[in-house]
Amino acid sequence: MSSPVSLQANARGDSAQHPAPHLVDATMFWSASSGGVRRYLQAKHGWLTRHTGWKHTIAAPVADQPDMVELPAVTLPGSGGYKLPVKRRALATTLQSLEPDLIEAGDPYRLAWAALDAAHARHIPAVACCHSNLELLAASFVGPRLAGTAMRAARRYVRRVYRHFDLVLAPSEIMKLHLLDAGVDRVVCQPLGVDTQTFHPARSSPMWRNQLGLPPATRLLVYAGRFAPEKNLHVLAEAVQRLGAPYMLLAIGAGPTPPSGERVIVRPFETDPMLLARTIASCDVFVHAGDQETFGLSVLEAMACGTPVVARAAEGLTELVDDSVGAAVADGRPESFANAISTLFLHDRGGPSRRARERAEAYDWNQMLPLLLMRYRQLLRGGPRPRDTGADSVTPTTLPMSLWQ
């Protein structure tokens, strides 16, 4: 793969003959406690600033960093600080006013339609990054009896919105297949990445671990991420309860469904990546029972820390976790997780730790972001394809509220 610097040459906006392109990332998935999408956009912003002349603007309902643009939105109760962009025309007007050369939409709701409107008005390419599996979210919202109906409706909506974009980015191969099966074309697999300098085994700190006040022989499991229903945190809590002493679960995050139990320690969301890396690297095993992950950024960060991972063998996690880096659990039963965790501790975890780190290094942002930049440049050279978004729309009442979170 070409180096980040070599990829800067001979492309629109990276020479004296052309002004630098302006990329606008529009997303609703941004709050004080948001994780994966926020770190993706922050990593992209920093990398573009260091390695290219591109201008990059993040547009979100919550603007808590310099140079961000705040989008009109309403507060979304019970979402952990997220806001919902609703007014399509106002959103499109705001995005147009930024005068972008390329727009990337980070969610498939009203903001996606507004991004398409703005791209159409400016005759520029529009990209969508698929961070959520709407079919699985819909099924979990309505329950088993109506799951099939909900999934079919979600699939129709996915096809309707994404078919207008010039390119759709799927963070995993399995998510790419889901989109293709739904009838979406122009899909490519564009994995997320990790800062392997920040998330590094050297962050491990015995002093930090001692501050928890736990016995030295404690087998400390850690989960970091949103406390959301699809993360199945109750499975982890029940698994550690089954295991008993000396196992403990440290859960770091925010959201409506935190785990609980006498062997569970809950800590608030950590905004500082360096402190988060110290925590993860200082624990024995990272655990994740989610079965709807489109990628699994927190799992990748744990692997970069050299922390073995026990995760559900489902969706995007299957492409990151296998028994060589920890354990891939075939089902979501607490006893299955308990067995996988205890079995991992029967053997030397040095091998899984080294292999986890090696696998994460292949996903370093300096590998993933040049590939993404190449895709952007191809779109800019080719220009947008004709699109008509006027007939397609969605209102906040069309989809269940959980899909907006």
Key attributes of the depicted protein:
transferase, 6-stranded parallel β-sheet, 7-stranded parallel β-sheet, 405 residues, globular, alpha/beta, Glycosyltransferase_grp1, Glycosyltransferase family 1 protein, disordered C terminus, single chain, 2 domains, Rossmann fold, Glyco_trans_4-like_N, glycosyltransferase activity, 36% helix
Describe the structure.
The structure is a single chain. It is built from 13 helices and 15 strands. It is an alpha/beta fold and 405 residues long. The two termini are 36 Å apart. The model is unreliable at 1-13 and 391-405 (pLDDT under 50).
Provide a short characterization of the protein structure.
The protein is an alpha/beta fold and 405 residues long. The protein is built from 13 helices and 15 strands. A seven-stranded parallel β-sheet has the order 3-2-1-6-7-8-9, sandwiched between helices. Strands 12-11-10-13-14-15 form a six-stranded parallel β-sheet, with helices on both faces.
Low-confidence stretches: 1-13, 391-405
Measured on Cα atoms, how large is the radius of gyration?
A: 21 Å
Beta-strand share of residues: 15-25%
| Element order: H for helix, E for strand | EHEEEEHEHEHHEHEHEHEEHEHEEHHH
What's the overall average pLDDT, rounded? 90
Number of domains: 2
Q: What structural category do the secondary elements indicate?
A: alpha/beta
Helix content: 25-40%
Largest sheet, in brief, is:
7 strands, parallel
CATH arch. level architecture of the largest domain:
3-Layer(aba) Sandwich
